[in-house]
Specification:
disordered N terminus; mainly alpha; Serine Threonine Protein Phosphatase 5, Tetratricopeptide repeat
Length: about 650
């Protein structure tokens, strides 16, 4: 930092000829030129100041101050090479000179940024690390021996370099002091938060940000909440920013991030709010692919599948080289249970991406393969489903979710030994993955090893006793191995431990139903619906339970119609409603709903059986025979094959009498 004594300057700022005549020696003359250089620099006479500094250096080559200040002037004039050369000259005389070190540090820091912005992406080595080290060394020396007040700019620059080099503890120490001394200085608070995060102290970063009531820090706080997947806090913080946005805030970006956080919160009302925000963004910029993608997700969650599909297709049109539009389209089609459409739309895209010479390597086909697999699986094309998931696993061998999809496909195909082996292999790499444990237990039970399956889930509960899903997984297995009383006790204990968790209440109701404790089951589902009246699975379960027993059929229909208003194309719900109408002898309504369900879920044996029953009662015996045949060829779950065979023989006899 340049500190000039005005009185001294006035005492020596005399004509050069006089100074030359009266100065007792060259050192005094050099000092006079040094002060004149300052005076001229302050007067914005850069050329005159450079000349004066050079005369001072010529008169006293051993004096580093004039050389250092000349370097600083070159730096101010953006003459970086001259600044670097001159600062190096000053440091030869005085290695700890703060101004020369400051100039050197700033120049090397500028070179770091220049390399980052201009070096080719394919270049694997450069001198960036060396320049970072040099910049840090010189700035540390400048700060250690300051002239006058410490320079905040140099300290902020040093902090940024610490962050770049991963020296987070040093950055925290420097920025903590700086933020106290210069609370309004630039983005120092944000840098401190980044330093905490880099050091693995994200909680400290959030606590620090929460403790400083500065509106400028709210976007950073929201970002940190997102990093920790604290979506509700992130959404609430973005809402606060949006109430009083500063001029520096990009409103479209803010609304997009706010909407993304809302979608991650997951509530239906949040999806509606997100959709409104994203519509504002799209109105302002109709080619914003990210906003369109997110709006597609919001529409899908709200059940507006045509809108979800339309936005997904707009994303594809905007950027066919990205998989995200296809991904959104697949999700919209899946939710509409249009599985053949998923195959027709996504299959060719996957084939092109993986087989075309010169295909864009950035196109992540691994995002789409699972959706292709889901569609094949739902349509009963299990070999193709397995092949899709196997390919996805080759592309993402470390992803436990993909391994889980493959296990589920083997189970659906009744290849239980293969399912158990895939699960075992995946658990070797992810030994604490609860979903894989549940799938392994299920595969072991199905392959005739129920005790091993139970042992796996009991071990899983020991590891995950703070996760409701572990209790549910073990309870389901207890029911499957005829240990229903243990399942009830386990879920009752879990309900006490997790009183607000609806999934436990749902599962307890289902277990009561399977134990034929119907009053307890009904009371449990009503308890769940009293706290969440829009819980479509609970509405469906209770409605179907009443229909299956032929009780209070109008109440059953009302419950099931409400479930379908929430999820209009759900094949299971359509089957339940159709079955309720069948029990009420409303055959036309029964046939309409059961046909939709049967067309959608062709491999579901129970649904095909239900559809066949109404067809038989309507006298459409040939169609009933076809439906019962599909039931026998389907998954076989919850049907008696001998009873189905008997129904087919009876229908054939009826058909012969026509």
């Amino acid at each position: 930092m340049k500190v000039v004594c005005l009185a001294a300057l006035l005492s020596v700022a005399i004509p050069l000829s006089v100074a030359a005549q009266t100065a007792p020696d060259k050192v005094g003359q050099a000092y006079a030129q040094f002060l004149i250089g300052h005076h001229l620099e302050d007067a914005e006479d850069a050329d005159g100041a450079i000349a004066a500094y050079k005369r001072a250096i010529e008169l006293d080559p051993s004096g580093a101050d004039a050389t250092a200040d000349l370097a600083a002037l070159y730096l101010h004039l953006n003459k970086f090479q001259e600044a670097l050369t001159t600062a190096e000259q000053a440091l030869k005389t005085s290695p700890e000179n703060p101004e020369a070190n400051r100039v050197m540090g700033i120049v090397y820091a500028a070179l770091v940024e220049t390399n980052r912005e201009t070096r080719p992406r394919t270049r694997t080595t450069d001198n960036t690390d060396e320049n970072i080290a040099k910049a840090i060394r010189h700035l540390e020396l400048a700060i250690a021996h300051p002239q006058g007040e410490p320079d905040p700019t140099a300290r902020v620059m040093l902090a940024r370099l610490y962050l770049r080099s991963g020296t987070f503890d040093k950055a925290i120490g420097l920025l903590t002091v700086l933020v106290d001394q210069e609370p309004g200085w630039g983005d120092v608070p944000v840098l401190l938060a980044e330093a905490y995060a880099g050091a693995g102290r994200t909680a400290d970063a959030i606590a620090w940000l929460e403790g400083h009531d500065d509106p400028r820090l709210l976007p950073t706080l929201a970002d940190f909440y997102e990093r920790e997947r604290r979506w509700k806090e992130a959404a609430d913080t973005y809402a606060r920013v949006l109430e009083h946005p500063s001029r520096s805030v990009d409103l479209r970006e803010l609304k997009t991030r706010y909407a993304s956080a809302l979608l991650n919160v997951g509530a239906r009302a949040d999806a509606g709010k997100a959709r409104d925000l994203l519509s504002d963004v799209v109105t302002a910029n109709t080619t914003d692919a990210r906003a369109l993608y997110l709006r597609s997700q919001a529409a899908r969650r709200l059940g507006d599948l045509p809108a979800a599909e339309a936005d997904a297709r707009r994303v594809i049109t905007l950027n066919r080289k990205s998989p995200w539009g296809h991904y959104a389209l697949a999700e919209a089609l899946e939710q509409g249970h249009r599985y053949q459409a998923v195959i027709d739309e996504i299959g060719p895209v996957v084939a092109e991406a993986r087989g075309k010479a010169g295909a864009d390597p950035s196109f992540d086909v691994g995002l789409l393969l699972p959706h292709l697999g889901f569609a094949y699986q739902e349509l009963g094309q299990f070999d193709k489903a397995i092949a899709s998931f196997e390919e996805a696993r080759r592309l993402s061998p470390k992803d436990p979710a993909v391994a889980g999809y493959l296990v589920e496909a083997h189970i659906a195909a009744k290849k239980y030994a293969n399912a158990a082996e895939v699960a075992r292999s995946a658990l070797a790499e992810h030994p604490d993955d609860l979903r894989l444990m549940r799938l392994q237990a299920q595969a072991l039970r199905q392959s005739g090893q129920p005790d091993r399956g139970v042992a796996v889930m009991e071990s899983a509960l020991t590891k995950h006793n703070d996760d409701p899903a572990a209790y549910i997984g073990l309870a389901q297995l207890y029911v499957d191995v005829d240990r229903g009383a243990q399942a009830v006790k386990l879920l009752q204990d879990a309900q006490t431990k997790f009183p607000a968790d609806n999934t436990i209440v749902f599962e307890l109701g289902a277990v009561y139903d399977k134990q034929k404790r119907f009053p307890d089951a009904e009371a449990t589902f009503k308890q769940l619906l009293s706290r969440d009246g829009e819980n479509a699975p609970a509405l469906n379960y209770l409605g179907y339970m009443l229909a299956e027993r032929g009780e209070r059929l109008q109440e059953s229909v009302d419950l099931l119609q409400k479930a379908l208003r929430i999820d209009p194309d759900n094949g299971s719900y359509l089957d339940s409603l159709g079955w309720a109408y069948f029990k009420a002898d409303k055959l036309d309504l029964a046939e309409t709903n059961l046909r939709r369900a049967a067309d959608q879920l062709k491999t579901n044996s129970v649904i095909q059986d239900h559809y066949a029953e109404v067809l038989f009662k309507l006298g459409r015996y040939d169609e009933a025979i076809a439906a019962w045949s599909r039931a026998l060829a389907g998954d076989g779950d919850s049907i008696n094959r001998a009873d189905i065979d008997k129904k087919i023989r009876n229908a054939k006899q009826k058909l012969g009498k026509k």
